[in-house]
Design brief:
By secondary structure, this protein is mostly helical. It has one domain: MetI-like (MetI-like fold, Orthogonal Bundle). The chain has ten helices and no strands.
Length: 257
């Protein structure tokens, strides 16, 4: 507990250091349009929080991006498992995954606008960006499974469910957590960027776009701060959920530093 308190205090000090740098930079620029300071940003956020439109926009974007991430996670785990089980299927999927990792997000956004329209744009973009990350980490996690444990399971005739629960899942979870740390942030970055381009109504991307139109830099930074906070909370919730999937005494401790 004492170690945790020291670590938390150190993080707060580092955060305050960068806030001070931000304030000094804003004072040096001395132009609210070019750079809004932390107090202006907090003031803009304070004006947004009591409004129903703020919560509607956050809820809209959160729901769409979460849906895209969830679909990509399920597909990535399923395809990664199938690729581990059937090597020829993994070879078949390899060009597709390379394509998804290589094509610029802007190209996906333009195509998705044609395919899905602006309302579901962030769902599709989050899915396309997250899918290859989860797929690669799932395949790597399953391939890292201890073969000696699998041989022991075969000797003792363990049921398929117990093999999954006590051998495959503990080997897989650290890789999924590592992938999710990247994928969760990417889903929000790409999803909101797609909304800025497609401008669906009542979305966070629309609010960012309108802030740019009206040169409301404080509002723009306030919405950016909201994205960072929501993304961080979403990441912690998902990683906590993954940790709970590891059985007691498994190969993964399930804790986060």
């Amino acid at each position: 507990m004492r170690h945790y308190s020291k670590k938390t205090g150190r993080r707060l000090l580092f955060a305050l250091f960068w806030v001070m740098i931000w304030q000094l930079a804003a004072m040096a620029v001395d132009n609210d349009i070019l750079m809004a300071g932390p107090w202006d940003t907090i003031g803009a956020l304070g004006r947004l929080l009591p409004t129903g439109e703020f919560w509607r926009s956050v809820g809209f974007s959160f729901g769409k991006i979460t849906l895209g991430f969830g679909a990509a996670f399920a597909m990535g785990v399923g395809l990664g498992t199938a690729g581990y089980r059937f090597p020829i299927f993994r070879e078949l999927l390899e060009p597709l995954m390379v394509l998804l990792k290589s094509v610029p997000v802007a190209s996906f956004v333009i195509l998705a606008l044609i395919w899905a329209g602006s309302a579901n744009l962030s769902v599709l973009i989050a899915l396309l960006v997250v899918l290859p990350i989860i797929y690669v980490n799932t395949a790597a996690g399953l391939q890292s499974t201890d073969h000696k444990l699998l041989e022991m399971a075969q000797v003792f005739n363990m049921t398929p469910w117990k093999r999954i629960r006590y051998i495959y899942v503990p080997a897989l979870i650290p890789y999924l957590k590592s992938g999710c740390r990247i994928a969760l942030g990417m889903s929000w970055k790409s999803g909101v960027a797609a909304e800025v381009i497609g401008v669906p109504g009542h979305s966070v991307g629309e609010k960012l776009y309108m802030s740019k139109i009206y040169l409301d830099t404080a509002g723009l930074m306030a919405w950016t701060l909201v994205i960072i906070l929501v993304s961080a909370l979403f990441e912690r919730a998902v990683l906590k959920l993954l940790s709970c999937l590891v059985p007691k005494g498994g190969a993964c401790d399930g804790g986060d530093s």
